[in-house]
Amino acid sequence: MKVIQHTASRTTRGKNLTIVYGIHDFPVGNILVALTAEGLCWLGINCDVAKLHENWKGAELVEDKAATTKAAREIAKLWPDSLHKLSIPIVLYGTAFQLKVWKELLHIKSGSTVTYEHIARKIGKPKAVRAVGSAVGRNTVSIVVPCHRVVNKSSDRINYGWGPAIKKALLKGEKVA
DNA sequence: ATTTACCGTGCTT
DNA sequence: AAGCACGGTAAAT
Questions:
Q1: Is the CB of A159 under 7 A from strand C?
Q2: What is the number of alpha carbons within 13 Å of residue A14 lying toward its C-beta?
Q3: Domain shared by A106 and A61, yes or no
Q4: Domain residue limits at A147
């Protein structure tokens, strides 16, 4: 899977960018798939356009379901085990820290989970656990960048941007207890 | 059981 | 420019 990276903050990303999007079926709910000219830049679960707009301020949003169908179908077909084979590049816009965290997520194998602490250590900032939590939560390409595979060390709490139920459903689909 | 300290980011003062 | 709340965690009260 090809990964294209851009350094940007949440407030600057989307400038001079045209994004086409469409909403499609997926096993755990609807997904909103959004593409730039470069590739897949956003994947939201049960997500509406307002949310997309919030995260891509300044971008021109164009609904075009036909344009996103191919991507959506491929994602549904490859999930849960083979998303790394995705033929469409994923496009990440984030701060240097966020990009590090998100790339680290891509190394987690389907069916396994890691803790926030583990990621923090991997990127060389063992004390930035909490910051890692923020970064994981701001991932723009859920499912493909597997933010749902990051769990609390003492799994008594489950947090997830798209709702705890979705996180559980995703992990269940990937055969995690 | 509660508090405290640490990290980076975006929102509110 | 400064303060604050987070998708965390361990250690000291």
A1: yes
A2: 18
A3: no
A4: 96-173
